[in-house]
Design brief:
The protein is built from 4 helices and 37 strands. With 607 residues, the protein is mainly beta. Among the domains are: 86 residues; 57 residues, no CATH class; 155 residues, no CATH class. A hairpin with a 7-residue loop joins strand 21 and strand 22. The longest helix has 15 residues. About 22% of the residues have low confidence.
Length: 607
C-alpha cells in the first residue's frame, strides 16, 4: 500500500478476493481486511494493545490465525468467520499517533483550585453539571437511596462516571452502546432478591416501599444508628452511619532479600513502603548489609505528609561503605556518613512548583592500606528551586513544550560548615514540533558559584561528554583537580566531542541545539534471531559554551576569553526496556582547530 502507515505481512484469502494485513493506523499493530480492488477501504478485524502479527487464513477461508502478545507472553490466536466480525468503526488513535496527525496539543488544560475542606489540589473538570436531558432521566428515579450516575461529558476524551452513595441492594448498569448520543444512558435498576441473583424491575419507577423495608431490616440486624434525611430535595442519602476517619497504615511495597557467599559472608537488603488509605501519609524504610555491620551498612527512612496542597517531608540516612581514593581504584577509603533532610513542595499549577530543601551531612573518611590523613567534613545545603514542565513526550525524547528549572544553593559560613559558598543555576529547554514530524530542541544552561568567608568556591561545573556514556573517557588531570569539591559540583552534559571533565570552572554557559528527524521506519531480521527495531530517529547537533574561572575572563567583563564546542550527528532507538543513543561529535574552538571525532554510545532519553 502507498500510505503513511506501516503496513506489512499481507496474506491473500484462498478465493483471491480479499487480503489480510498488519497496519499501525491507530499506532498499534492490528489486523485489517480489505477487498483486493479497494485496499483503501480496509476495516479492522482486531483491536488489541499487545500488537498482532503473522496473520494467515485457513485453507477454506472460514477462519484465520495470528500471533498476539497478551497476558505477558506470545500466543497463537484464531478467529472463526473473520469476514463477519470486521469492526464498523476505525480504531481509537494512540496519543503518539494523534500527535502525528493533529498539530493541536493533546492535553486538555486542567485548572487547579484549592479544596476548601483540606486546602489540597483538586482537578476541576471542564463541566460538572447535569444536562437537562440527564436531569429528566434522574428525576424519574429519585428515591432517597437511589444512586446518581453522572457522565463526565468533557472534551478530554476520557469518560468518567461519578456515583453517589448507593443502597446495598440497588444496581445500575451503564449502556454505552449508542455512540450517537454523547450522554451515557442509564438503564433501569436491577434489584437483588434472596430468591434470585438478579431480577429486572419492569417498571421505570423504583419500588421505594420495598427498598425502605430492606433498609429497615438491615438497620435492625446491625443495631447501628442511622440518620435519615426526609427532605425530598436530596437526591441521594447514605444508608450507613458516618464515622470519623481513623489513620491506619498498610504496606504498599515490601521486598526482602538474603544471601550468603564465601566472599561477602551474609548479605541482605530490604525496602518497605507504607501509606494510609487516603494517601495523606507515606513512610519508607530501606537498608542493606554485606558482611559485617562495622564495614558495610546502609540505612534510610523518610516520612511525607501529602494531605494539604503544600507537601512536606523529612528523612535521614546512615552509611558505612568503601570508596576509591583515586580513579584507578588502587587505594581505598572507609567512609562513615550520616545525614538528613527536610523539604517542602508547593505546586502553583499542574506544570509548575516551588521546592525548598535543607540537606545536612557529615562524612568521615579513613584511609585503608595506605598512609594518609583522615578526612572529616560537614555540609549544610539549603536549596530553593523552581520547576516548570509542560512537555509532551515522544518515542525517544520530548516532542513539544518547555522545561525549565532554576535553583539557588547556599552553604552558609557557619563554624561546622567546611565549604561555604553560594551558587545559582538555570536550565531552560524548548522543543518545537515542526510539520508534525520533526523536532528542534534547544537548551540553555547558565551557572555561577562564588566562595564565601574569603575562600574559593568548592562548587565547580564540569563540562564534557554525554549523559550515561558507556565506555566513557575522562580527563585525569581535571579529575584530580576537581576531586575535593566533587560532592558539591555539577556534571553538565551533553557537550559532545569532548571527554568527561575536559573543561571545568566556577562559571558556565552552554547552548545545545539539536534537529531531530525520523530516519528508519523499521529494521526486521529473521535469522539468526528474529529481531525487529522500529522508529529509529536521527539527529544533527551543535554544542557551544565554556566553563571558566575568574582568571580566564576577558578583562573587565564576566565572559570567558575562549569559546569551545562540538558538532556532529546521531541515531536514537527505543528498544523497549531502554533507549540506545549513538552520537559522533567533532570538538572545535570555532577558530581554526577541529579535533578527532569522539563516538558516544549512551543510554536514556534525549535531553
Amino acid at each position: 500500500t502507498d500510505t503513511r502507515w506501516n503496513e506489512k505481512q499481507p496474506c491473500p484469502s484462498p478465493d483471491g478476493k480479499n487480503v489480510m494485513f498488519i497496519s499501525d493506523r491507530n499506532g498499534i499493530d492490528n489486523i485489517y481486511i480489505a477487498s483486493l480492488d479497494s485496499i483503501d477501504k480496509a476495516r479492522p478485524l482486531t483491536d488489541y494493545v499487545g500488537g498482532c502479527s503473522n496473520p494467515d487464513w485457513s485453507r477454506d477461508g472460514g477462519s484465520m490465525v495470528f500471533s498476539l502478545f497478551q497476558q505477558q507472553g506470545w500466543d497463537i490466536w484464531s478467529i472463526e468467520k473473520p469476514l463477519s466480525k470486521l469492526l464498523k468503526d476505525t480504531l481509537l488513535l494512540t496519543q503518539f499517533m494523534e500527535s502525528t496527525v493533529h498539530s493541536r496539543a493533546l492535553f486538555t488544560e486542567v485548572k487547579l483550585k484549592a479544596d476548601s475542606s483540606k486546602s489540597g489540589i483538586s482537578e476541576q473538570a471542564p463541566e460538572d453539571t447535569l444536562t437537562d436531558s440527564l436531569k429528566t432521566e434522574v428525576e424519574k428515579a429519585s428515591p432517597d437511596s437511589v444512586p446518581l450516575i453522572i457522565p463526565d461529558t468533557s472534551d478530554t476524551g476520557i469518560s468518567a462516571i461519578k456515583a453517589s452513595t448507593v443502597a446495598s441492594d440497588s444496581i445500575y448498569t451503564i449502556d454505552s452502546s449508542d455512540t450517537s448520543d454523547p450522554l451515557v444512558h442509564i438503564s433501569e435498576p436491577e434489584v437483588m432478591s434472596p430468591d434470585s441473583s438478579s431480577a429486572r424491575n419492569d417498571s421505570s419507577q423504583i419500588d421505594t416501599a420495598s427498598i425502605s423495608k430492606e433498609l429497615s431490616s438491615a438497620e435492625e440486624n446491625t443495631a447501628e444508628e442511622t440518620k435519615t434525611i426526609s427532605d425530598s430535595s436530596h437526591p441521594a442519602v447514605s444508608s450507613n452511619p458516618s464515622s470519623p476517619y481513623r489513620l491506619k497504615f498498610t504496606p504498599d511495597l515490601v521486598t526482602f532479600g538474603l544471601g550468603i557467599s564465601t566472599y561477602y559472608s551474609p548479605a541482605g537488603q530490604w525496602l518497605m513502603a507504607f501509606s494510609d488509605m487516603m494517601g495523606d501519609h507515606r513512610i519508607t524504610v530501606a537498608g542493606d548489609i554485606q558482611g559485617s555491620f562495622q564495614d558495610y551498612l546502609h540505612l534510610f527512612a523518610s516520612y511525607f505528609y501529602l494531605q494539604k496542597r503544600l507537601d512536606i517531608g523529612a528523612g535521614a540516612y546512615y552509611s558505612k561503605d568503601y570508596s576509591s581514593a583515586s580513579i584507578f581504584g588502587d587505594r581505598l577509603y572507609h567512609d562513615t556518613e550520616a545525614g538528613g533532610f527536610v523539604m517542602a513542595q508547593y505546586p502553583f499549577s499542574i506544570s509548575s512548583r516551588l521546592d525548598l530543601e535543607i540537606f545536612a551531612r557529615n562524612i568521615k573518611r579513613r584511609p585503608v592500606g595506605f598512609s594518609g590523613p583522615t578526612i572529616n567534613t560537614s555540609a549544610l545545603l539549603p536549596t530553593l528551586s523552581y520547576v516548570y514542565d509542560n512537555i509532551l513526550w515522544g518515542i525517544t525524547g520530548p516532542l513539544t513544550g518547555v522545561r525549565a528549572a532554576g535553583s539557588l544553593v547556599v552553604s552558609p559560613p557557619l563554624n561546622f560548615v567546611d565549604d561555604p559558598f553560594i551558587s545559582a543555576d538555570a536550565d531552560i529547554r524548548m522543543y518545537l514540533h515542526l510539520a508534525k514530524r520533526f523536532v528542534w530542541a534547544n537548551r540553555l544552561f547558565l551557572g555561577a558559584s562564588v566562595g564565601m568567608a574569603g575562600e574559593s568556591s568548592a562548587k565547580r561545573y564540569m563540562l564534557g561528554g554525554n549523559e550515561n556514556w558507556l565506555l566513557y573517557r575522562i580527563n585525569i588531570d581535571e579529575y584530580e583537580r576537581n576531586l575535593p569539591g566533587a560532592f558539591y559540583s555539577n556534571f553538565v552534559t551533553p557537550f559532545r566531542g569532548w571527554n568527561y571533565i575536559d573543561i571545568s570552572g566556577t562559571k558556565i554557559a552552554v547552548l545545545n541545539s539539536e534537529f531531530r528527524f525520523p530516519f528508519i521506519r523499521e529494521i526486521s531480521l529473521v535469522w539468526p534471531l528474529p529481531i525487529q527495531i522500529r522508529y529509529i530517529n536521527g539527529a544533527v547537533f551543535t554544542d557551544i559554551g565554556n566553563a571558566w574561572d575568574t582568571e580566564d575572563q576577558i578583562k573587565g567583563l564576566p565572559f570567558p576569553d575562549k569559546i569551545y564546542g562540538g558538532f556532529g550527528f546521531g541515531l536514537r532507538a527505543n528498544l523497549g526496556i531502554f533507549i540506545l543513543r549513538f552520537d559522533r561529535g567533532w570538538p572545535t574552538d570555532f577558530r581554526k582547530d577541529i579535533g578527532t571525532p569522539v563516538n558516544y554510545f549512551s543510554l536514556g532519553t534525549e535531553f
